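Researcher: Next sequence.
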Amino acid sequence: MVVSLLGNYDIIQQPKNISEFSRKNVPFYMFIDEETEAYMTNSSVLGNSKRVGLWRIIVVRNVPYSDARRNGKVSF
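Model: Next structure:
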């Protein structure tokens, strides 16, 4: 499962009703930009493990557009 969170606009929601099999076998990736990373780090949501619940956080650097709404349309 892949989600992108850009521009620090959205709130991270954890997947619900995930079976133990899926927890072990399905990758849960969330792509965030540097602005969102800074906010999450400062609010102690994101630590050194780069994980938030089931989500494995991947920071996207040098996003193509300055407007976060446009970056959400780009396939990474």
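Model: The chain has a mean pLDDT of 79. The two ends are 14 Å apart (CA to CA).
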